[in-house]
Design goal:
Blueprint: E1 7-13, E2 17-24, E3 30-39, E4 43-44, E5 50-52, H1 54-70, E6 77-84, E7 90-92, E8 102-103, H2 121-128, H3 137-147, E9 152-154, H4 156-165, E10 169-171, H5 172-176, E11 181-182, E12 187-188, H6 190-196, E13 205-207, E14 213-214, E15 230-231, E16 235-236, H7 237-245, E17 252-257, E18 261-268, E19 280-283, E20 288-295, H8 299-308, E21 327-329, E22 347-349, H9 357-383, E23 388-392, H10 394-398, H11 400-410, E24 414-417, H12 422-432, E25 439-443, H13 447-471
Parallel strand pairs: 1-6, 6-16, 10-13, 17-23, 23-24
Antiparallel strand pairs: 1-2, 2-3, 4-5, 5-8, 7-9, 11-12, 14-15, 17-18, 18-20, 19-20, 21-22, 24-25
GO molecular function, one term: gluconokinase activity
GO biological process, one term: carbohydrate metabolic process
Keywords: Kinase, Transferase
């Protein structure tokens, strides 16, 4: 796309907040002062529920539009793009009304899957990039059908898009996050639909990446600057974050540390390498996929520890990276599939009276770094070379110590993305064909740090295995 002096309105549909911000069309850089945010508070229950109020969520997002309008920021907008949380689901009634709150990825409720004796989960995983796990719709839908008389299902981004444009459709990227997409064809997988007990017409229609909607007529007077502006299909936040950090080809892995963490590589869907059992694969758009591994404890654990330990500073600056002694296995929130370690499995080993709040924080950040490194090394092997690494996300921005720790644990140089809003930036880049660069500091691993982490690794791996064994008892 030819670079212009226009602007992009980017929406970021997160779990803890929903944001609307304006970017330059030339390089997807944030326009100063053109950001509106609505805080989201998920509701958690003892039954494993983790839900969002759909009405409150959408109205909060529309309020972000109003705030930008009042600031004069909705003039000159050339495109509207969306980055969104993956895996959400809402049960719908016969008129398309929501029968449930938004069920988020963190919700653990489900019923056992009954796919039949001929089911081959290895083949299912190779086709869909997912597992038969409660995170995905083939497990979510049968459970929801046991709870409500649903006529259809949609995800949060599908319903936001419908509210904005009047059309209930989904993108190949969002559909891949349901665990119900045949990655090669870009259509719903027949076996996944059969396991879920639904037909394709009960789910949002999948539109091509070139599709564009328009703001619905009811909003034309409310936001006149957006009349006729194309609304592009949403991109899953993992894919968007990769591209937003500057990791958009097979030479580079993006490591993002937000509420959770992930390491991912974007690559062409054609001739993609065979997917290892331990990794997932989703779609970015019609031509690209993203392969990676995710981790449930990261920035959420950092925030929890700094609160529980009453740390005055959020950096364990007095502790050496890779320090021997205290080991933390960061399974407080369990593990993502295919592993089955439940939440509440975090562990410390080697606690002594010499330990401090900072050493406990450092051990936990080191544990997360070692977990991410496990995924990075699998991706190295999959793509046949040592990948370059770009770091991004709120956890990366918040802690220089953690940036150095990750760099030492990976034992390779890293580049830091200077832009905090990597999801919105990536969604804009994908929709408009841009290639953003990280733009932040370059870090070289400190040899002494690398040596300490290497010495620590065998003990960590042994204690990690012990933690997994204990969790199964």
């Amino acid at each position: 796309m030819t670079k212009t002096d226009g602007r992009i309105l980017a929406l970021d549909l997160g779990t803890s907040s929903t944001r609307a911000l304006v970017l330059t069309a030339a390089d997807a850089a944030p326009v100063p002062g053109a950001l509106a945010r609505h805080k989201i508070s998920p509701t958690y229950g003892a039954d494993g529920s983790a839900v969002l109020d759909l009405h409150e969520y959408v109205e909060g997002l529309l309020g972000c539009f109003d705030e930008l309008q009042q600031g004069g920021h909705l003039e000159g907008i050339e495109a509207i793009v969306l980055s969104t949380q993956w895996h959400s689901i809402v049960a719908l009634g016969p008129r398309g009304e929501a029968l449930t709150p938004v069920i988020t990825w963190a919700d653990t409720r489900s019923i056992p899957a009954t796919p039949g004796p001929s089911f081959d989960e290895q083949a299912f995983h190779a086709r869909t990039g997912a597992w038969l796990h409660r995170l995905y719709w083939p497990r979510r839908i049968p459970w929801l059908l046991s709870e409500v008389s649903a006529a259809g299902f949609a995800g949060l981004p599908d319903l936001v898009l419908e509210r904005l444009t009047g059309e209930r459709v989904t993108s190949v990227s969002v559909a891949s996050g349901t665990g119900s997409l045949d990655l090669a064809t870009g259509a719903y997988d027949e076996e996944a639909l059969a396991i879920a007990g639904v037909k394709a017409d009960q789910l949002p229609a999948i539109v091509p990446s070139g599709w564009a909607g328009r703001i619905a007529a009811e909003y034309e007077r409310r936001w006149p600057g957006l009349v006729g502006v194309p609304v592009h299909p949403p991109t899953g936040d993992g894919a968007a974050s990769n591209v937003g950090t500057g990791a958009y080809d097979v030479t580079t892995a993006a490591v993002t540390i937000g509420t959770s963490a992930a390491v991912r590589v974007v690559h062409p869907i054609d001739n993609a390498p065979e997917l290892p059992w331990e990794l997932w694969r989703y779609r970015v758009d019609d031509k690209h996929a993203v392969t990676g591994m995710a981790f449930s404890a990261a920035g959420n654990m950092h925030a929890w520890l700094t609160d529980v330990l009453r740390l005055q500073h959020e950096e364990p600056t007095t502790v050496e990276i890779g320090a021997p002694g205290l080991i933390a296995v960061p399974f407080q929130a369990g593990t993502r599939p295919p592993a089955t370690v439940p939440g509440g499995s975090g562990a410390y080993f080697g606690l002594s009276f010499d330990d401090t709040a900072e050493s406990m924080l450092a051990a936990s950040l080191q544990g997360v770094s070692l977990e991410v490194d496990r995924g990075l090394r699998m991706l190295d092997d999959l793509f046949g070379h040592q990948l370059s690494v770009v770091l991004g996300g709120g956890g990366i921005d918040a802690s220089a110590w953690w940036r150095r720790c990750l760099t030492a644990t990976f034992a390779r140089p890293t580049d830091v993305c200077a832009e905090a809003e990597v999801g919105a930036r990536g969604a804009a880049a994908i929709a408009l064909g841009l290639s953003p660069e990280p733009g932040g500091e370059h870090l070289d691993p400190v040899p002494a740090d690398v040596d300490r982490v290497a010495a620590l690794r065998p003990r960590y791996e042994s204690l990690r295995a012990l933690t997994i064994q204990s969790a199964s008892l």
